[in-house]
Amino acid sequence: MALFLVVACQNGTLDSLKLSYYYMKREFKICFAYLAAFPKGFLIDTNRLIQQWYALGYIYSEHDGERCINYLLGMSFLQISGHPMVNQGPVHANVSRKLTMHNLVHDLASKIIDDEFLVLDPEANGARSWKKAIHCRHAELIQYENQSNVFDCLPKNLRSLHIRDFQKWQLPPKAFSRSKYIRVLDLACSARQLTEGQSTSSNIMLPRSIKNLKLLRYLDSTGLPVPLLPKSVYTLQNMETLIMSNCSLETLPDNICSLHRLRYLDLSGCSKITKLPDHLKLESLEHMNLSNCHELENLPKDFGNLQRLGFLSLSDCYKVSLLPESFCQLFHLKSLDLSDCHELRELPEYFGNLFELDSLNLTSCCKLQVLPESLCKLSKLRCLNLSYCMRLDKLPSSFGDLKLQSLDISSTVSLNALPDSITEMTSLTRFGATEGTPKVIASFRKIQKHLNFPGIIEHGVQEIENKGCSSIVKLAQLTCYQMHVSQLQNVRNPEDAEIAKLRDKSDLRQLTLRWGNQGGEGKSILENLVPPQTLDSFCLGGYMSKDFPKWMSDISSYLPSLTYLGLCDLGTCDTLPSFGQLPNLRGISMENIPNVRKIGKEFFGRGRKCIKLRSIQLWLMENLAELWTTRRGFGKLSSSALPFDMSLKELESLPKWLGSLISLQRVIIRDCPKITSLPESIKNLTALKVLVLQGCKGWDILPEWIGQLTALQIIEIIDFPNLTSLPESMKDLSSLTELYIKDCQCLVMLPECLGQVISLQKLRIINCPNLTSLPESMKDLSSITMLCIKECRGLATLPECLGQLITLQDISIINCPNLTTLSESMKGLTSLTDLYIKKCQELAVLPESLGQLITLQDISIINCPNLTTLPESMKGLTSLTDLYIKKCQGLAVLPESLGNLITLQKLHIINCPKLTS
């Protein structure tokens, strides 16, 4: 009886579907019926489906195809799949969607197409009967195992042929000798087989009889180990779509340029291709996908001849270092993906000539330092992704002229400031900056507040009185792209979290879930807060359960598009899920997870690793004692610009493989008291720009080989109580611009060779009480602009050579109680604009030569009780605008000449009791 009811229900549903089909738009009916050519459960790629419809003459443009797909989605005849390849953020607008059909919908399509479609199974039915299928136009050949005779029996009027899962067998040379009318030839491996690595490594050649397919418009050989195209490919003059994705293709024949109608070329994943034909004249080409062509070195010089090109992906082309000048002649280019082009150093000067460009993805172009000014002329550019461009140090001044809607600058760690013009970018609706310098993050928050972006929701959960539920249920009705949900401890009923329906919010890209200080058992709540698969960024804080719900344990399946993961204040968690399985993860931050003792192989699980990982931050992991025993878990980090940032109290040594990450740019080690030295392998980090060492209390020396890090720009040495000196090899740090030394109580001197670091621009020395003098060689620091000396109690004088620092703009001397005088040689500081003196109790007089500093704009003198007078020469300070004097109890009189300072705008005299008038 139950079986009868199920069958009756299915028949009723099918009748309803037939009725819906009856009222379907006429032009879409034939497109729908063609879907029967795909097996039940098949993941249909939208781009390829549209190209097949076009090749068969069912539609006249790709726009028509998109209309049809959206129409079928609206009727629920198609559904968007939650497949791991989905990623539909703003900068992924051209990424193909994956579609599925319900089995009953597939049954309907099969009934409609009727005898125009056949499943050809050599094992199940006699091949000879196929010839009699005179109405057959579309066929699917399955279970082919070298039965060469089956091709003699193909229906002669076929328009499309799909050969499924034959990659272990070679097609016979005469396979297509009788097939004159085929428009679509689909030889692609299934996505499942590619994922599971089932494709054979032995080569397959396309049969030479393919030249007989004179009407062929669409050829797809995805995943087949095809090393080269047949020489006769040039005879396929009607070819419009050629897909060789994930093949073993080693080269493209020059005569491919004879395919004058070719519109769509997909070579993605052809990792053996090193170059394209020199004269690539494909005058009809509109779509070109070269992503994951890892060995492709550069584009041909005349690449700009592809005048109709609208879409180009060079994503993960690791060896592409420059774009040819002719590139800027691609006047119809709308979408350009250069993400993970690790060697790309610059964009062409006339990049702004790409007037039609709408989307530009530069994610993880880790050697890109500047953007051309002409980029700001791209008036149609709407989406720009600069995330993880870790060497990008500034944006063009006219950046605000762009009419961007989406901008991402996450983890641009070298970017020191944002141009003021961004505040006028009123078209901006999405702005991402998950990591960056404090100044940039502060500017980001200010801009975010100023522009009042739509689509951002911050919700603190509360109990709703008299309704027996919490306010989280209100989220079900809201649409946004960024959501911050806090006070989750107020959710008493797990069903409330389910009602919020986060998983249905397909527009959501950034999600933060946080429990308050009270914490509380949260697993049952988190279990019902499953995010949508399109999520880019996820942060979890204050979660106090020991383990995680299923969706986080299998996070790579639930959140395949995730690029950033932040975990904070997980007080009881002692093991982590296999976050290393996330295929698109670029940044991970873990802070205050005190019970985790090990991050090892289990973190990465099995299969593909997080090959795009660029940023690791580990903070306050107090009991972490084991960290990644091998480098394998990091995938291809030798091509990355990964920051290595950690604070781990129990870790005793750094992994030796750290030195093999040859593109590493930042190493930050804080509060790791058990680490006593750096592994010598770090000297191989020739791209390292930032080295921060803090709280490594067991060190008394720094390694001499530190001078071999010639790309180093910033060194910070903080809280080294036993450090007595710095290595002489520092003289070889030819790129060093900033040196910061703090809380080194035993440091008695700086090396005399310091003066040889002529690139040094900023020198800060703080709380080094036993430092008694500065080296005379400082006179040679020809680039220095800022000098800060603070809490150096042993310092009694500054060197005479200080006056020779003609580039110095800013001097701060703070809490140096034994400093009695400043040198008269200060008159030589011809660029000085700011002088700040505070808590120098023994300082009694300022040099008379102070008045010769005609560039000085700002003087602050605070808490110098023995200072009795200011020099009369101050009348010569013709640029002074601000004078601030505070708590100088001994100051009894001001010089009469102060009245001559006509540029003075602000005069503050505070708590100077001896000054009476």
Automatic annotation (TrEMBL):
Parts of the chain that traverse the membrane: none
Superkingdom as given in the UniProt entry: Eukaryota
Protein name per UniProt: Disease resistance protein RGA2
Domain Disease resistance R13L4/SHOC-2-like LRR: 158-313
R13L1/DRL21-like LRR repeat region domain ranges (all copies): 474-592
InterPro entries named among the record's database cross-references: Leu-rich_rpt, Leu-rich_rpt_Cys-con_subtyp, LRR_dom_sf, LRR_R13L1-DRL21, LRR_R13L4/SHOC2-like, WH-like_DNA-bd_sf, WHD_DRP
Pfam families: LRR_1 (PF00560), LRR_14 (PF23598), LRR_R13L1-DRL21 (PF25019), WHD_DRP (PF23559)
Gene3D superfamilies with a match to the protein in the record: Ribonuclease Inhibitor (3.80.10.10), Winged helix-like DNA-binding domain superfamily/Winged helix DNA-binding domain (1.10.10.10)
Assigned keywords, A-Z: Leucine-rich repeat, Plant defense, Repeat
GO-annotated biological processes: defense response
Disease resistance protein winged helix domain boundaries: 38-109
